[in-house]
Amino acid sequence: MEIHQITIQAGIDKLGNTERLPDLRINKGEIYGIVGPTGSGKSQLIADIEQLAQGDTASKRRILINGAIPSHELRSDPRKKMVAQLSQNMNFFADMPVADFLKLHAKCRGKSKVDIKQVISIANTLTGEPINASDNLTILSGGQTRALMVADVAIISESPIVLIDEIENAGIKKHEALQLLSGEGKIILVVTHDPVLALSAQKRIIMRNGGMRDIIESTYREKQISLQLNDIDRCILALREDVRAGRKIEEVNFEALRHELSFL
Amino acid sequence: MKFIIVAGTPGAGKTAVLIHTLKILLQQNVKPSVVKIDCLYSDDPKRFAKLGVPVQLGLSMDMCPDHFSIYNTDAILEFARAQNSEFLIMETAGLCHRCAPYTTNSLGVCVIDATSGPNNPMKVGPFLSCADIVVITKGDMISQAEREIFRECILETNQNCSIIEANGLSGQGASELALQIRSTKKRVSENESLRHNAPFAVCTLCAGEKRVGAEHHRGLLRKMNGMQEYVGE
């Protein structure tokens, strides 16, 4: 089944008032940011989309696929699932080796041909200490867990709708991770507090008190700012890698940074 | 009368899910009675009573809690009939992985915690494998991948169950459980029997034996190597 559009039918906020933003239609190929203070309902919004909620969650939202109510199978059968979600959870509870876990998940998603080694090697491009196929899931560090979740979502859960919750908190290479997760023609929603990521989305949904409050389309100026922020971000991430690698920081090119900032 | 039996490991969220479900049923003008079985102590009847439903507590004390609820089924059904309830919901203490409290014509609901790991559905035994509905709680605490694997492991243990992903805090999934409770065609009969047998044993522990060594024990006994024998008169 091909997906052209999802519709988020407005529900209620935490006070029980109807959401200010009316029904929202998101088309194939669009990238949306979701922003708002902590506790404003960002994670609930993407949880609603993940479950294809039908008025049965706290927000009472309904999610339509191509304008229609999705079937029960689409909602529950992982083989038919159209939504891949990278949640904020930083832990695995399953007590089993990495390779077994990935194989089991590939089986659940009906993808028996997935190359497990490739999934692990992709995860290892995002994190510092490499993950081994025989490592037990529960001993992985926060960053390793998150990197493995990203690779799993990108390759095993590979779906036309991708939901990403605060990828910047994971201590992994966020730009690379985001690139891995997004793809041509997908619908992507990114919950973020990070201005670099928020401004790089075409539109962003503003959350307040559990409800969708507003929507902002990113302007030409914002896109320019986003690119400049990207450069600054890259500089800081490079420094982070140096610090992590145990190197001493002799010099930072503040001139270049100032040059970037002068355009802001 | 419809008889809904809810089982699950302690802390899985049976009461939390039930409270959300009862609220929905009450809104739909369904008036159920609730019986809560526990071992030594329970606060839950107060939580149920706040909703305005008739509630009775049974404490099994020195008796096995599942055996207690089975032994008292007639009295429990009588309580609900006296309330003129069409629906009786019984929440069991549900401690033993070898028992299932569901009777042939009840609606068996198993509540299981997704954070207990994907091997758990295989471990918990008949109260999952004979259930009509399996409610998975705490799914919001694990990744999507783990949720999907957990679901698959449940289906491997019980192919025919209907699975509901629920959240005891937000009430997600309660409307679907309420719908399935309302639409069940099962009616409790005069001659109910258990879906699954309990462990075969008249055990010395039941009779109050506290000593640990093998020589103090009688009944149907099974050794670590799998050998099973009956010791006694």
From TrEMBL, chain A:
One of its GO terms (molecular function) is ATP binding. Residues 1-235 form the ABC transporter domain. Keywords: ATP-binding, Nucleotide-binding, Transport. The keyword Protease does not apply. The keyword Iron does not apply. Belongs to the ABC transporter superfamily. This is ABC transporter ATP-binding protein. It comes from Labilibaculum antarcticum.
TrEMBL record, chain B:
Residues 4-163 form the CobW/HypB/UreG nucleotide-binding domain. GO terms for molecular function: GTPase activity; nickel cation binding; zinc ion binding. Signal peptide: none annotated. It holds the Pfam family cobW. GO terms for biological process: protein maturation. It comes from the Bacteria. PANTHER family: COBW_HYPB_UREG NUCLEOTIDE-BINDING DOMAIN-CONTAINING PROTEIN (PTHR30134:SF1), HYDROGENASE PROTEIN ASSEMBLY PROTEIN, NICKEL CHAPERONE (PTHR30134). This is CobW/HypB/UreG nucleotide-binding domain-containing protein.
